[in-house]
Amino acid sequence: MLLATINNKLMKVLNWVIVMSMVFLVVSISLQILNRYVMRIPMAWTEEYAKYFFVWLAMFGSAKAVREKSHIFVDILEVLIKGKISQACGFIADCVSMVFFVTLFYVSIPWTVKNFGVNTESIPELNMGMFYLCIPLSAAVMILFGLEVMIARVKGVIEKEKGE
């Protein structure tokens, strides 16, 4: 399936972005600790970068969790209800998630575009649009991964019905 192929390639890029965000986050925090407590010269930019890398890490980590179905969820309905009703509840939950992802994507684009002309105070070279860019990008990835999850759920229900 084309969507699965695209998502597999996207997942490789996503894993790289997550790892690099984590590496830069650790380096930035380590520099902050070294400069603040050892050299006694705090550097504002290390704290600023740490915040940005953390947000990128969280947003793209959330996208990865969508594909791996590893977000926190309340499974009481899944435990109490079995069969088609349980699958229907899961599909409704997937639809609600998709509404959130699409809304996040739609709302974040104008905000990101608006902030491409704004620079940070502590790091004048850093454009705020680059910081906010992770929101529409991760939302788009969540939409693609969410579609794949929904399609897999529907296929699973159809295959179960054929097997019965």
Automatic annotation (TrEMBL):
Entry keyword Cell inner membrane: yes
GO MF, any single term: transmembrane transporter activity
Domain called Tripartite ATP-independent periplasmic transporters DctQ component: residue spans: 25-154
InterPro entries recorded: DctQ, TRAP_DctQ
Chief subcellular location: membrane
TM spans (from-to): 12-34, 88-109, 129-152
Membrane topology: Multi-pass membrane protein
Entry keyword Transport: yes
A Pfam family per the record: DctQ
GO (cellular component) term, any one: plasma membrane
GO biological process assignments: C4-dicarboxylate transport
Keywords: Cell inner membrane, Cell membrane, Membrane, Transmembrane, Transmembrane helix, Transport
Subcellular location(s) of the protein: Cell inner membrane
Family of the protein in this entry: Belongs to the TRAP transporter small permease family.
Name listed for the protein in its UniProt record: Tripartite ATP-independent periplasmic transporters DctQ component domain-containing protein
Species of origin: uncultured delta proteobacterium
